[in-house]
Predict the structure.
Amino acid sequence: MVLVGGSGLFTEELASKGIPYTSLRYLDRPLRFPVRPVRDTLALREVHHMLRRVAPDIVSTHSSKAGWLGRLAAHRLQLPVLFTAHGWAFTEGVSRGSAFAYRWAERFAGPLADCIITVSECDRRLALKHRIATRGRLVTIHNGVDDVPESLRASPKATPTRLTMVARFERQKDHKTLLQALAQLRDQPWSIDLVGDGPLWVPTEALARTLGLSERVSFLGARNDVADHLARSQVFVLATRWEGLPRSVLEAMRAGLPVVATDVGGVREAVSDGETGFLTPCGDRDALAEKLGKLVAEPQLRAEMGIRGRRLYEQHFTFQRMYRETLALYRTVLEERSDRGK
């Protein structure tokens, strides 16, 4: 049973797979500060009511708002509960004021969970540094993504080079630096697909026009066929200000693409710099241009990095591996709860 705020592509996918879900009226995604006491109290009541009615064996919570309210409701009902941090909202790159508020919110909610899953070792260390939870209650389980058929494997050596970035148009993602870097590569043969939507779409389109890149940049919006677009690409790029362990990078490696990404959060736990792609400093358009230009100019290097990236995906980032580790943790939590009840 999935409890979710709102509806959209995610709930459509749940429905298509026959997974039961309830869209809650008052639960929204962002954890805002200052909190909205009326709406957030109503959201907590909704979550509490549904958990009491469903009576699950275990509760798995995700995202800041749902994670905070879900842990509180489950704790009140004495249900085993876990929280998965898909990148902390107080990590480097987040504004100082927001980071301070989120850090204290997580310190309050941390003890409510039987266990906290971090999707990268970087995030586990960050949680320990800021005393979110004790060492024994923090477990790293790297993200994993399901495999695709061979028909959806990319051909990185093909020319001209098509780049792809999959990311929402919001402050976290750094489309501005990406476009400024690409403006330095006008003399090379490339195009780029930007997959995603979000509040910064319009200003990003305007920037592409200002830089004279409109004919080479395609804004594709939110898609549910990302794997098809990756299969038609030669290079994946992710310019970003902060991350946990982005699934988009793993999907690109699954397709056999070289990855150029900002060296933030747990990205380097997936991308082997110089082997499966390149890592660049946050906000450094010159370094990003250099690495992208190198891959655009060298088809053989693209192919070799893509092969190594695909191999790394098969070894460490499959859905099956993530599933086994997560299910084992659920069982451990339930066993420990049972032992304490004896």
Q: What stands out?
A: Residues 141 and 325 are 7 Å apart (CA to CA). The first strand starts at residue 2 and ends at 5.
